[in-house]
TrEMBL record:
Polymerase beta nucleotidyltransferase domain location: 13-101
Protein name according to UniProt: DNA polymerase beta domain protein region
Organism of this sequence: Marivirga tractuosa (strain ATCC 23168 / DSM 4126 / NBRC 15989 / NCIMB 1408 / VKM B-1430 / H-43) (Microscilla tractuosa)
Stored SUPFAM superfamilies: Nucleotidyltransferase (SSF81301)
Length: 110
C-alpha cells in the first residue's frame, strides 16, 4: 500500500488479524495514511465493513492488533454505524482497500 507509511510486514500482520474474524468482510484505510500526508506518529484509521460487526468484536480485534506491538495507534470504526456524513464522504473519497475477505469459490460442478 503505497504512500501509507506502513511496511509490507505491518500490512501483512494487520490483514492476518482481520482474517481471523469471518465477520470482517472488508477493511478500508482512511485519513492521513490513505491520503499520503501522514506524519511518523500518525495513527492508522481503519473502518471495518461487515453486517455482523459490533463493539464486542471491535474490542477483540483491537486486543489482537495490540499484540502486534506496532509503533502506531490503530483507530477502528464500524462503517455501517458511522453517522457523520462528512466522515462517510471522506472514507468513500480517499479510502483504500486494506483487506477484503476472499469469497469461497469452491463448489461442486454438475
Amino acid at each position: 500500500m503505497e504512500n501509507s507509511g506502513l511496511t509490507k510486514d505491518d500490512i501483512f500482520n494487520i490483514r492476518s488479524v482481520f482474517s481471523n474474524y469471518p465477520q470482517i468482510e472488508e477493511a478500508l484505510l482512511y485519513g492521513s495514511r490513505a491520503m499520503g500526508n501522514y506524519k511518523p506518529a500518525s495513527d492508522i484509521d481503519i473502518s471495518l465493513i461487515g453486517d455482523e460487526i459490533d463493539l464486542s468484536l471491535i474490542n477483540q480485534v483491537e486486543f489482537d492488533l495490540d499484540d502486534l506491538m506496532l509503533p502506531y495507534k490503530i483507530d477502528l470504526s464500524i462503517y455501517h454505524k458511522i453517522k457523520n456524513p462528512e466522515l462517510l464522504d471522506h472514507i468513500s473519497r480517499v479510502g483504500k482497500n486494506l483487506y477484503q475477505r476472499r469469497m469461497n469459490t469452491d463448489y461442486i460442478s454438475n
